[in-house]
Amino acid sequence: RRAFDPTLRDNNLNADVFEVEPGVWMTFRVADYQAAQLKPIELVRDAIAEELKAQAQFEQAQSIAAAIQAHWDSGQAGLPADIDRDLIQLASFSESSREGDAQIDPDWLRVAFNAPAPEQAPSTQMESIAGRPIVVARVDAIQLAEAAPEQQAELAGALADIRVQQEAEEFWSQVNSKTQVNRP
Fold first, then answer.
1. What is the number of other CB atoms lying within 10 angstroms of the CB of residue 126?
2. Could you read off the pLDDT of 21-49 as tens digits, one per residue?
3. 3 state SS for 17-29
4. What's the whole-model pTM score?
5. Alpha-carbon dihedral of residues 171, 176, 178, 182, nearest 10 degrees?
6. SS3 sequence, 103-127?
7. Would you tell me how many other CB atoms lie within 10 Å of the CB of residue 148?
8. Burial track 101-111 (b if 16+ CB lie within 10 A, e otherwise)
9. Going by DSSP bridges, is the β-strand pair 123-128/134-139 parallel, antiparallel, or unpaired?
10. In angstroms, what CA-CA distances link 38 with 46, 48, 51, 119, 142?
11. How many CA atoms lie within 13 A of 148 on its CB side?
12. How far is the CA of 20 from the CAs of 17, 26, 96, 172, in angstroms?
């Protein structure tokens, strides 16, 4: 925070030393500084227009995705009748792995794998990927492949390890949020 302090910057002084991780200390100095300046509208007009257009498209995509998710959450199949199908891309991931395939990007597929497991009705999940594409996934059922007994034991062990790790992280998260930790 103090790195851009005018006194430090103007006198070419180092910022305060701080610990970035246990046993690793760092400081820095601003070697070159240029104050922010307004750019003429002629230089930024096209970029502003593109950003406004992209924002409008993103808001339209969010609206369409929300309508699809609401349609599916109400138990209906297919897509809502009032959706412009030219604006969306449909893909089935019935036989896909987490790596995706030629038709489905792995980042898009991640949304389906983040959806809760369906119980009585299909589950849906909607996410924005890197701030732009909106993905809505519907999971009707999950079928796991048969595994040999030794693979089942390995899976059970791995899941137990994950649970212990998550519980430990939650414990330390609670401890750190409730107390001030001081290091020598």
1. 18
2. 888 888 888 888 888 899 999 999 999 99
3. CEEEECCEEECCC
4. 0.53
5. 140
6. CCCHHHHHHHHHCCCCCCCCEEEEE
7. 8
8. eeebeeebbbb
9. antiparallel
10. 16, 14, 18, 56, 55
11. 2
12. 10, 7, 41, 19
pLDDT in tens, 91-136: 777 666 667 777 777 777 777 777 777 777 777 888 777 666 777 8
CA–CA distance, 72 with 90 (Å, rounded to integer): 14
Pair of tokens at residue 100: 């995706």
Look at the block and give the residue holding tokens 């395939």. 101
SS3 174: helix
On whether the CB atoms of residues 75 and 121 are closer than 8 A, the answer is yes
Which one, of 144, 85, 84, 139, lies nearest residue 116 by Cα?
A: 139
Measured distance CA(117)–CA(139) in Å, rounded: 7
DSSP state of 169: H
Quick check: 147 and 173 in contact, CB under 8 A? no
Q: Are 140 and 122 in contact (CB under 8 A)?
A: yes
Q: Which helix (H) or strand (E) holds 59?
A: helix 41-73
User: Which of helix, strand or coil describes residue 134?
Assistant: strand
